Amino acid sequence: MNSALQCMSNVSSLTNYFLEEKWNEELNEDNPLGMQGEIARTYAELAKLMWSGRYTYTVPRNFKIAVGKFAPQFSGFQQQDSQELMAFLLDGLHEDLNRIRKKPYIELKDAENRPDKEVAEEAWGNYRKRNDSVIVDTFHGLLKSTLVCPQCSKVSVTFDPFCYLSLPLPIKKERQMEVFWVPLDPAKHPVQYKLTVPKLGTVSDLCSALSKYVNKPADQMIVTDVYSHKFHKIYSKEDGLSPITDRDDIFIYEVPLMDDHIVILPIYMREKKVKVAYNDTPITSYSLFGQPLLLPVPRKHCTYEILYNLVLNRISRYVKVPDESEKWWIDDDVKNRSDEDDELEEDLDNLDVVPKPLYSVNGENNSQMEEMDDSCDSPLEESPKGNLPYSSNLNCTDTSTTLTNNLNNSVGPASSSTTNSNITATSGKSKTEIKQTCEDNINTDIETEENENQPPHRLFRFTPVNSYGTAAVDNRMDETGKPLELTSQTYIAIDWDMKAKMKFYSESVAETIDIHESMRQKNTMKKQTIQLNECLELFTTKEKLGADDPWYCPQCKKHQQATKKFDLWSLPNILVIHLKRFSYNRYWRDKIDTLVEFPTGNLNLKKYIINNNHGPATYDLISVSNHYGGMGGGHYTAFAKNKDDKEWYYFDDSTVSASSEDAVVTKAAYVLVYQRQGIPDPTQKKRSKMNNATCSSLAGGSGQAAAAVTAAAAATTAAAVGAPPPSFPQTEPQDRNTNGIEDTDDDDDDDDEAMDIN
Q1: 372 and 385 share one domain
Q2: Residues 152 and 7 in one domain
Q3: Confidence at residue 272, expressed as pLDDT on a 0 to 100 scale
Q4: I need a labelling partner for 169 at 20 to 30 A (CA). Which of 66, 516, 573, 665 fits?
Q5: Where are the alpha helices (DSSP H) in 601-747?
Q6: pLDDT band per the 50, 70, 90 thresholds, residue 470
Q7: CA quadruple 588, 589, 593, 594: dihedral positive or negative?
Q8: How many CA atoms lie within 13 Å of 443's alpha carbon, on the beta-carbon side?
Q9: What is the model's pLDDT at position 426?
Q10: pLDDT value at residue 110
Q11: Domain co-membership, 601 together with 734
């Protein structure tokens, strides 16, 4: 709001109209289209405060309340479009100050091939019979609009008043986008392409552009935004391309022709990370890696095993599938132990004697029993018969060689009564029984080692996750062979076995991307500088109406996509130009930050006016409203040429600083206000001297170096609307609820002279 009010307040004719109380004589409180005079009344009050020379800042409390009352969108403190605020304010002032108390009914006539001059004078005269105010005198011009029906060639000519010109920016309508194509064939690498697409197009246009390169139908493509190894967004074909930036990694996946029997599953890859906490407690977590997948699977009858094989096939380009006989999940030390167990079996085959008792009933030979006990995980227990020690769950942790040595040390000379190995001594077991016991223990040891790993035939297991891939929705998936319940909303993580990933996953192959020759093309879509004249030429260029905005042809009796052309017939004394930086349609919205170069003086628009009898059309810039930021938010400032000292100043909320004419042309310029050369200057010298004297008194009397005021003479002539600078004395209590009514932009301008239409 501050930006708009500063632009308006430095229009000398409009400001003096309110300061000299002329508005009071023309106030129309009974106009049903007006605001009961509240907009005009509160604006007049604000103008007096701003130009009284008594305040270093002004809080537009009453004015904002009045605006919010009749336009609720401006009642809060959220940012609103400045051009919309300007349009509302100009219309509100016009209706509150309309000199026509009773508007007559006027029947509009068709041009019927009459001369433009006759039709224009008729249109302007009819308009002035219902609309007559200081706003019309100053801001309103006349446009000629020509419509041609493509069917019957009917030509419709109308002349319409305008309060401001909204000029389109002639930017290139195409852009280049880099994408990664992921074929359905698992043996093929992803390929990077550079595509040329409509700047205001949709995802469907992007797929169509890629289809020409890859010879695949666009309806078999899914466009995604991949970020940090997950899908940041999966686009629909109707989504606009405008939100997609050059920094986004766009992956387009080929999928089979969709039907009710197929579902596309988003799949992430995860690996286990184990960290040790401060108390030596291991903490297990999962982190994403690699490129996510879009995998087509059967909607029904898809079991865990089927899903596993589908995934394994999809990643077969960079994952080596181990042989079924390869027991990769067994640690090397377990494999070594198996080799040593074979040596133990050979030793047992050569065992021809009966082992002597490890201990006797009378307690002898205890040392040998203790040595055997140390070589096993489970404690040795006394045999019920008091013969061979045994363990109910034997797990030998020592090597087989040590175990063999222990057994050999336990064996003494054969008893005189023993004639073969199958005969049991009075206090021992046979060789066959000893061999069987050790073989059973060895097999148990290996089986236990295997069971402690993941299922031996799987390189990974599946875990349902959310779209971020970090929180498990359900930490189990049915592996019993029952069909899985899968939908398009299901996200699944591949949780890799750490050994399997290390042995069979090739990161270098997985990250290999082929570069298409289109990537070598230079980007020809760079931002360019635009001249204001180019905007005017585009505004007056013939165009075809869109399918969403047809024209009703009175001759065909139906809506048609007619051609339309605007021409300038007459221009006002104060010309407001709105640069259409914000663009909208049903798919996208965007802001154009391209620099528009515009003259600060001697803007000659004569060549754009088709009225040969029009008077001078040379303009000087008097204010600019700027917008910084994007579609979601931003900040408004203003440049204004002081109506008294003719110097340029910069207004940024409560800060006012001196500026220069060269500084006002920036890419943030949004609304330009021009004044026609040659109109009388209504500035009163007496008021100017009084204001300048007040400024000096204020700056000196405060004893402060208020740079914004002393450098700009602006605290007296147009104090900043909003919060006061910290160094300024506050002349009224600061209301924080009304501070910072910024981020809206509006300017207004007025002159007492009537517009020249002849």
Answers
A1: yes
A2: yes
A3: 85
A4: 573
A5: 685-702, 707-710, 714-717
A6: confident
A7: positive
A8: 7
A9: 38
A10: 81
A11: yes
Q: In whole angstroms, what is the distance from residue 17 CA to residue 24 CA?
A: 10
Same domain, 443 and 587: no
C-alpha distances in angstroms, 338 versus 331, 377, 424, 439? 11, 18, 29, 11
Beta bridge partners, 197, equal 175
Same domain, 618 and 507: no
Classify 192 as helix, strand or coil.
Answer: strand
Torsions phi, psi of 365, nearest 5?
60, 30
- Can you tell me whether residue 111 is helix, strand or coil? coil
Both 684 and 590 in one domain: the answer is yes
Q: Choose one of 472, 493, 519: the last residue of a domain.
A: 519
With bands split at pLDDT 50, 70 and 90, how would you rate the model's confidence at 523?
low
8 Å CB contact between 395 and 376: yes
* Contact status, residue 460 vs residue 495, Cβ threshold 8 Å: yes
Predicted TM-score of the model (pTM): 0.59
The answer to whether residue 656 sits within a structural domain is yes
What residue numbers bound the domain in which 606 lies? Answer: 2-163+575-738
Tokens of 426: 């009075």
Q: What is the pLDDT of residues 188-243, one digit of tens each?
A: 999 999 999 988 889 999 999 999 999 999 999 999 999 999 999 999 999 989 88
CA atoms of 469 and 485, how far apart (whole Å): 19
Structural contact between residues 221 and 211, judged by C-beta atoms closer than 8 angstroms = yes
Q: Does position 353 have pLDDT exceeding 90, yes or no? A: no
Tell me the CATH number at 270. Answer: 3.10.20.90
Distance CA 428, CA 437 (A): 14
CB neighbour list of residue 346: distance below 8 Å, 6 or more residues apart: none
Cα separation of 371 and 124, whole Å? 118
DSSP 547: T
Query: What CATH number corresponds to the domain at position 142?
Result: 3.90.70.10
* Number of structural domains in the chain: 3
15 inside domain = yes
Nearest to 653 by CA among 572, 589, 728, 575: 728
Residue for token pair 């940041």: 232
In a domain, 548, yes or no: no
CA-based end-to-end distance of the chain: 37
Burial of 22 (0-12, 13-18, 19+ CB in 10 A): middle
